[in-house]
Automatic annotation (TrEMBL):
This is dITP/XTP pyrophosphatase. PANTHER family: INOSINE TRIPHOSPHATE PYROPHOSPHATASE (PTHR11067:SF9), INOSINE TRIPHOSPHATE PYROPHOSPHATASE/HAM1 PROTEIN (PTHR11067). It catalyses: dITP + H2O = dIMP + diphosphate + H(+); ITP + H2O = IMP + diphosphate + H(+); XTP + H2O = XMP + diphosphate + H(+). Substrate binds at T7, R8, N9, M10, G11, K12, S70, F160, G161, Y162, D163, K183, H188, R189.
Length: 201
């Protein structure tokens, strides 16, 4: 059994592979479909962008596809970078540049606070999933979230994106210090996936 995930982000692919392996499903991504179009993500919400990706890629491939639009909302930045998380520092998908910019912004905002503590701001990851079937034109949509803190004590080499600077209170570690299993249990993507399975059953 195969499931096509409409993403080019290998960090997401790794997590979907792990989740669907447990159900005996193999995951294909857009790396296996290089002819698939680049979807313009001009929606104003995660959900709208996930729907655009699922619909345009599903119609193009004429296959049911799952799309993920996700990002990081930081309280002290009025929920930025949000839907712009992948290109916060300007260049799409440059994790190192995005992380550097996020810490710079927060350290600037926190300047003058007489605290030395590394936890700079509450934040949350959000994930919108849309499963779209071109044969019926129907879609199933879910969302998941996880709350944590942006930390200047960055750590870990796992995960992707903003994981090294996202401190997870439940584990007292950053998201990048968790293995795939641990991340899935608490993450925005894990929660959205569990809700998707519930809706499909
Ligand atoms: P696709 O559109 O091809 O799926 P993308 O990386 O452009 O890939 P998004 O537009 O959804 O996907 O942007 C998601 C960004 O949000 C991603 O690049 C990370 O910077 C951040 N992000 C999302 N989920 C994350 C996670 O689990 N851990 C760390 N950062 C995450
Ligand atoms: Na996006």
């Amino acid at each position: 059994d195969i499931i096509v995930v409409a993403t080019r982000n290998m960090g997401k692919v790794r997590e979907f592979r792990h989740a669907f392996a447990a159900l005996g499903k193999e995951v294909l991504s857009l790396h296996e479909y290089p002819e698939a179009p680049e979807v313009v993500e001009d929606g104003s919400t995660f959900r709208e962008n996930a729907f655009k990706k699922a619909k345009q890629i599903g119609d193009f491939l004429n296959l049911p596809v799952l799309a993920d639009d996700s990002g990081l909302c930081v309280e002290l930045l009025d929920d930025a970078p949000g839907i712009y998380s992948a290109r916060y520092a300007g260049e799409h998908g440059n994790d190192a540049a995005n992380n550097a910019k996020l810490l710079e912004e927060l350290i600037r905002i926190r300047q003058g606070d007489d605290t030395e503590q590394p936890l700079l701001s509450p934040a949350r990851f959000v994930c919108a999933l849309v499963l779209y079937d071109p044969a019926s034109g129907r879609s199933v949509e879910t969302e998941g979230e996880v709350a944590g803190w942006i930390t200047s004590d960055t750590a870990g080499a796992g995960g992707f994106g903003y994981d090294p600077l996202f401190y997870v209170p439940q584990y007292k570690r950053t998201m990048a210090e968790l293995n795939v299993e641990e991340k899935q249990r608490i993450s925005h993507r894990g929660e959205a996936l569990r809700r998707l399975m519930e809706k499909l059953n």
